[in-house]
């Protein structure tokens, strides 16, 4: 059994200008059924895990809760978690939605990611994962290394926040593959084109990453 992988690109481009305005969305939505503004898929009993708490992820979190899914969200700090819970509780106040489950951890650190994953497994008795959303969006204008020696933006958005979970990581993929009709969604960022490629340094990082992932 295999999980389905989706890339959600949130960078502004011509497609955004065509569809992601009110007029563009209504024109786009008119050709689709059901109505995306009101449709909620029945997801009771489905288990979802999300990294990232930006506006895109918060809207997706609200949608999943309104669909009845059990949702775990990894938050970097208690203040971020409190704000997320407050916003989601207010947004779904008129509906009988499950409460969001918070996991606290810094996704730029392997040790924190491992701890969050163990906490998720301990809290989730069904031993399944229907939807994984890798949406951590961190942007450090200046180069900054984590305590584990990796550039923070790269570590949070890709190395730890995405790679350790999915698609090649050893944490979430076994559970996704064991869950029927599971989905993995990788969210990109409009900030991505602002960074330099740095392929020479990246090769060094990738070699270190390979060692780190198999310790």
Structure notes:
The chain is α/β, with parallel strands linked by helices and 215 residues long. The chain has one domain (4-12, 40-213): NAD(P)-binding Rossmann-like Domain (Rossmann fold, 3-Layer(aba) Sandwich). It has 8 helices and 6 strands. A 6-stranded parallel beta sheet has the order 1-6-5-2-3-4, sandwiched between helices. The longest helix is centred in the C-terminal third of the chain and has 15 residues, at 199-213.
In short:
The chain is α/β, with parallel strands linked by helices.
| Proportion of strand residues | 5-15%
CATH topology: Rossmann fold
Label the overall shape. globular
pLDDT average, as an integer? 78
Specify the CATH class: Alpha Beta
Please tell me the total number of domains.
1
Strand tally is: 6
Sheet of most strands: 6 strands, parallel
Q: Give me the CATH superfamily.
A: NAD(P)-binding Rossmann-like Domain
Spans of at least 5 consecutive residues with low confidence? none
CATH architecture classification name: 3-Layer(aba) Sandwich
Number of helices: 8
Report strand order across the widest sheet: 1-6-5-2-3-4
Structural class: alpha/beta
Helicity level, as a percent range? 40-55%
Order of helices and strands: EHHEHEHEHEHHEH
Distance between the termini: 27 Å
Rg over CA atoms, rounded to whole Å, is 18 Å
């Amino acid at each position: 059994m295999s999980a389905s992988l989706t890339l959600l690109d949130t960078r502004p481009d011509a497609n955004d200008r065509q569809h992601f305005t009110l007029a563009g969305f209504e024109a786009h939505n008119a050709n689709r059924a059901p109505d995306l503004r009101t449709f909620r898929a029945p997801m009771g009993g489905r288990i979802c895990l999300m990294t990232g708490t930006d506006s895109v992820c918060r809207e997706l979190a609200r949608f999943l809760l309104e669909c009845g899914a059990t949702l775990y969200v990894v938050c970097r700090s208690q203040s971020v978690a409190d704000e997320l819970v407050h916003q989601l509780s207010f947004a779904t106040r008129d509906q009988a939605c499950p409460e969001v489950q918070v996991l606290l951890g810094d996704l730029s650190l392997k040790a924190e990611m491992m701890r969050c994953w163990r906490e998720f497994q301990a809290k989730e008795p069904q031993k399944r994962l229907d939807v994984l959303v890798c949406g951590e969006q961190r942007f450090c204008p200046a180069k900054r290394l984590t305590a584990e020696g990796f550039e923070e933006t790269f570590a949070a958005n890709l190395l730890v926040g995405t790679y350790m979970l999915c698609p090649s990581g050893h944490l979430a993929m076994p559970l996704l593959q064991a869950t029927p009709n599971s989905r993995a969604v990788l969210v990109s960022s409009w900030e991505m084109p602002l960074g330099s490629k740095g392929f020479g340094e990246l090769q060094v990082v990738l070699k270190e990453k390979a060692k780190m992932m198999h310790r």
